Automatic annotation (TrEMBL):
The lineage of its organism: Bacteria, Bacillati, Bacillota, Bacilli, Lactobacillales. Residues 386-426 have a biased composition (Acidic residues). Residues 646-681 form the Gram-positive cocci surface proteins LPxTG domain. Residues 1-15 form the signal peptide. The chain crosses the membrane at residues 655-674. Keywords: Cell wall, Membrane, Peptidoglycan-anchor, Secreted, Signal, Transmembrane, Transmembrane helix. Residues 386-430, 609-648 are annotated as: Disordered. Residues 627-639 have a biased composition (Low complexity). This is LPXTG cell wall anchor domain-containing protein.
């Protein structure tokens, strides 16, 4: 009997012990029971994990080496939790919230908090100002060390911030070199005792080295901040070869001096071709400009948002000896052949005169000095000198006196002669006069358009010379102004483009804030391109915007994703598989200004049936500008590495204790059963 009791008690104790172990594993805080990738029980999205780590280490004082000590699933779960909180509190900073939680759950990381955290952020800002190191660069050198060095250096240099920074730069370099060496060891599979494995390569860097001729040494000379917008371009283009060719040129434009003559020359050749096609520049002029000047000048213009026209103007002002002779040739011809006032012409900048001539050239497909003379009078108020005109009138008057006996008879006969020599006005001439009479167009402006051009614009609108209602004439006036926008005043162009802007806002996901970043002349160019392509103007302009400036839609995409997730059954994972353009079109308000989320669901289901219906993932044909969640985890990928999961450490799972306990219970039951029968017998 005592043996039975002993076995029963032992069996129960074993079972209770197994259950207690399981309970502890479930209830105790993760940071107290699980460390650095022990017991990985669920599959972690490695791409999402890498993005989370990169962003966290890019904007908070923690580096990827420290994050190796944090469980992968913990990071993903924490990120998901904080992202959910954003839905009810949009002002919440996900990365700061995650960092604060890490300081609590992983005290072994010794992360900065409170006044130390504030002091480090201030120090990092100063160091970034007086050195080449960004915030994420400093994180790799370990924030706590950086703060200590900087504080001591300030004391030693009497609060001279620049001197303090310069004094600690060698320490920063040494710490970063050590960090990079440890990272290299991990990438080469050299275990440093922590069970670390090689980190996956950054997709952007891989694409640079595989798809372009940019070397690692060249690439390493740019900061994360400099490359951020270019990286976005690469991501939006899905790293295609065509996209990487553009990215390669953009990187070279950042600092052409560090690249080879061949690399810079290839970009300069493309720039020259673009100039010849879209500006008054000639090959002879462009050949006089240095490759490095051209590339760097265009690169600076791109960063400032200047178009190719602005780049050409810069070149004209920088090199008057190159472009001045051509401008002077036009001035001389205007003065000698058309009596335009020379002093007034000299007041017109070379660039503006060359643009005016270029516009006339495009209009007539040939150099037309008479048309240029009219344009200069109309657009710049250049007057005509009357010396030769008076001489001609005097000569004409003398000839008339010889033929007639009195001034009155001469005048009457002259008028009669003029009428008999002039041809009857055509319907189109009369129509031009009607346009001038009922709109703000002048005859000089209209005369810059050939009859064929005017007729083609009328045909586009379905008008004839009998279409003289105010509405019809106003519509034609708008087409004329946009078609020859270079020849009209800013006020005329602005009044014409305003309805175009309004149509784009009303009919596409673009907003006023986005459209206000672009000039009326840019809109005129897009409008003409749309008409030439026989495309709907608002849709065409929107497509140009999302293709050329996708980053301008980031905030709209984040908001749209959040609204879709909150108001439909579509999940975060599903919406992340959709093109950002489709997402924006889906939440486009209806005629009443509301968003019908039933229609949103139907639209996205039709576009992505496999994704929405759960039939499997569906990769968009072009990924647009995707985020991996309602808070964009790609906004600050400013750390140079990602880390993979560490291997399982080999700890025994509590499941084995449960199995042992169960076997013990079964065995104990069998023993008791047999013993009982023996006792009866």
């Amino acid at each position: 009997m005592r043996l039975k009791k002993l076995l029963l008690v032992s069996t129960c104790a074993l079972a209770i012990g197994a259950g207690t172990t399981l309970g502890n594993n479930a209830l105790l805080p993760t940071s107290q029971t699980v460390h650095a990738q022990e017991e990985t029980t669920t599959e972690v999205d490695q791409e999402l994990l890498a993005q989370i780590k990169n962003n966290l280490a890019g904007v908070q004082p923690v580096n990827l080496e420290q994050l190796l000590e944090v469980e992968d699933q913990y990071l993903v779960d924490l990120y998901t939790t904080k992202n959910t909180e954003v839905e009810t509190n949009p002002e919440l900073d996900v990365w700061l919230e995650m960092y604060n939680q890490l300081t609590i759950d992983y005290p072994q990381l010794n992360l900065l908090t409170g006044e130390d955290l504030q002091a480090y952020n201030e120090a990092a800002e100063v160091i970034s100002t007086y050195s080449e190191y960004s915030y994420s660069d400093l994180n790799t050198a370990l924030p706590s060390d950086i703060l200590g060095w900087y504080t001591n250096a300030l004391l030693e240099n009497n609060d001279d911030k620049q001197a303090a920074v310069e004094s600690i730069v060698p320490q920063i370099i040494q710490a970063r070199d050590a960090y990079i060496e440890r990272r290299t060891e991990r990438e080469n599979g050299e275990d440093n005792g922590n069970g670390e494995t090689p980190a996956p390569e950054d997709e952007f860097e891989v694409a640079i080295f595989e798809s372009t001729d940019i070397t690692e040494e060249q690439f390493s000379q740019f900061t994360e901040e400099e490359l951020a917008p270019i990286k976005t371009t690469a991501e939006n283009g899905d790293y295609s070869q065509e996209t990487m060719d553009i990215v390669r040129d953009q990187i070279i434009e950042l600092n052409p001096e560090i690249f080879t003559d061949e690399q810079v020359g290839s970009v300069a050749t493309k720039i020259r071709e673009a100039f010849i096609e879209s500006t008054p520049a000639t090959q002879e002029q462009l050949d006089q400009l240095d490759d490095i000047y051209l590339v760097s000048m265009v690169g600076e213009g791109n960063q400032a948002g200047t178009d190719i026209g602005g780049a050409y103007n810069t070149a004209v002002y920088d090199y008057p000896e190159v472009f001045g002779p051509e401008a002077n040739r036009f001035r001389d011809a205007l003065v000698s052949d058309y009596n335009l006032n020379e002093e007034e012409l000299l007041e017109v900048p070379d660039a503006e005169l060359l643009w005016e001539e270029f516009s006339v050239f495009q209009e007539n497909n040939a150099e037309d000095m008479e048309a240029l003379a009219l344009a200069m009078q109309e657009n710049y108020g250049i007057t005509v000198d009357d010396a030769e005109t008076s001489s001609d009138e005097s000569s004409s008057s003398e000839e008339s006196s010889d033929e007639e006996s009195s001034d009155e008879e001469s005048s009457d006969e002259g008028e009669s002669s003029d009428l008999s020599e002039s041809e009857p006005a055509s319907d189109l001439d009369i129509y031009r006069e009607e346009l001038v009479g009922q709109t703000d167009l002048t005859m000089e402006q209209l005369n810059q358009f050939s009859d064929e051009h005017i007729t083609s614009l009328m045909d586009r609108l379905g008008l004839s010379t009998e279409s003289t209602s105010p509405e019809e004439l106003t519509a034609l006036r708008a087409e004329i102004v946009i078609a020859g926008y270079e020849n009209f005043s800013d006020d005329q162009l602005s009044s014409t483009i305003a309805p175009v802007r309004e149509a784009v806002v009303n009919q596409t996901p673009a907003t006023d804030a986005i459209l206000n970043e672009f000039s009326d002349r840019t809109f005129a160019e897009w409008y003409n391109e749309a008409k030439n392509a026989d495309a709907e103007v608002p849709s065409y302009i929107f497509q140009e915007l999302v293709t050329m400036y996708p980053d301008m839609f980031d905030a709209l995409v984040v908001e749209a994703k959040n609204n879709i997730i909150q108001n439909t059954t579509i999940t975060q994972d599903q919406v992340d598989q959709m093109q950002f353009e489709d997402i924006l079109w889906a939440v486009q308000p209806n005629e009443s200004g509301d968003v019908n989320y039933v229609d949103v669901t139907n639209y996205l289901t039709e576009r992505y049936p496999d994704v929405v219906n759960g039939g499997g993932s569906q990769t968009p044909s072009s990924d647009g500008n995707e985020e991996s969640s309602s808070v964009d985890v790609s906004i600050s990928s400013s750390v140079e590495e990602n880390e993979e999961n560490l291997p399982n450490t080999g700890e025994n799972s509590s499941i084995w204790l449960i199995i042992v306990a169960a076997l013990a219970l079964i065995g104990g039951g069998i023993y008791l059963f047999i013993s009982g029968r023996r006792h009866k017998n």
